[in-house]
Every structure is written in C-alpha cells, then in structure tokens.
Specification:
With 196 residues, the chain is of the alpha+beta class. The protein has helices at 4-50, 85-90, 191-195, and strands at residues 64-70, 75-80, 93-94, 106-110, 128-132, 137-149, 163-170, 180-188.
Length: 196
C-alpha cells in the first residue's frame, strides 16, 4: 500500500541529499582545478629558476615550457610542452614538431576554444604577444588573423623568419567538434628597431 505521509518526508530528504552530492562534486572539481593551476605555476617558476624542466606533479605526462601574455585581451597562461588531452586540460600546448619558445622559426601553440584560447576571438592586428621562455621574454606583433580549414597544415610549417602561431578550433560558439581552425600569426619584434 502506498503511504503518502512517508513519501512526503522521504522525498525532500532525497532531493536535499542529491543536491548536496552534486554541489559537493562541483566544489571538488573546482578545488582540484585551483590546486592544479598553483602546481603548474610553481613548476614554471622552478623551471625558470633551475633552468631545467619541472613537472607540476610526479605522474604528469607534461611540463610547462613558457608563459604567454596578451595584455590587450587579458590573456595570461602557461604553455605545456605538448598537445595531449591531459596537457590541454590545463593550458595551451606546444606543437612538438615546431620551434620551442626562444628558438628561431615558427613556434606553434594550440589550445581549446572553450578554455584558455576563448579570448582569442577578441584579438586584433598589431596587438602584442609576449612569450616568457626559460631564459628570456620575446615580443611578437600580430600580423594575421584568419579562420581556415582544419586540414590546412600550412600554418604549422617552418618559416624563414621568427613567428608565433596560435591555433584553436573555430567557430568559437560551435557546439561539438569544430572542423575549422582560428589562426593568429605574429612576427617577432626586433626590440632594437622598436626602441628607435
């Protein structure tokens, strides 16, 4: 027999319990993200200080290689050494077949459009990109902004001059796997000529 009084008492308790469970899970993941950010930040500071790579935690399959700043769009993030799923969860990654920050050529960095690189939708030509490497900081000026096909590998090829290429999926508002890419290309600034 159905006991209505019993269900009037149990149902609110059940709903409260479910609410606490889901709220607790959200707090757990949010706290985990904050802790990971601090571990990655500390690993980057150790890398710069010791001049050797430092993993953010012992079992990580990635480590930080640079820090990217784009003041005009309020973007500041640490760049991981690869573009594995785990690495891209915590920040943009360096495409290993391209030049490393601090080297000559094309430095390619990829990130998620719904994560760190979401702010790229607001970037403009002539914005300045700063990349802090292990030994020095370098500055680049944005020269090209273009959506392109995801099959277009031209942007990852080596160049005769020093550039940084930022890549994310496109369009930004798309839900699901986007087939196109949003490219930001910037040329290295010669600080001596920039000061004249």
């Amino acid at each position: 027999m159905f006991n209505m009084k019993k269900w009037i008492f149990i149902l609110p308790l059940l709903l409260i319990g479910m609410g606490l469970f889901f709220a607790g899970k959200s707090v757990y993941y949010y706290s985990k993200g904050i802790a990971a950010y601090h571990f990655i930040e500390n690993a980057w500071e150790d890398t710069k200080e010791k001049k050797k790579t430092t993993k953010p935690w012992t079992w990580a399959d990635f480590h930080p290689v640079a820090k990217l700043y784009i003041e005009s769009i309020d973007l500041k993030c640490i760049i991981m050494n690869q573009i594995s799923d785990e690495a891209l969860t915590f920040g943009p990654g360096h495409l290993s077949s391209t030049s490393l920050p601090g080297q000559s050529g094309n430095i390619v960095i990829a990130g998620h459009r719904d994560g760190h690189f979401n702010k790229l939708k607001s970037i403009k030509k002539n914005d300045v990109i700063s990349i802090e490497g292990m030994n020095q900081s370098e500055f680049y000026i944005v020269t090209e902004i273009t959506p392109t096909s995801g099959q277009d590998i031209y942007w990852t090829e080596q160049t005769e001059y020093d550039v940084i290429t930022l890549i994310t999926c496109y369009p930004f508002h798309y839900i699901g796997e986007a087939g196109d890419r949003f490219i930001v290309r910037a040329e290295k600034l010669d600080m001596y000529s920039a000061l004249k």
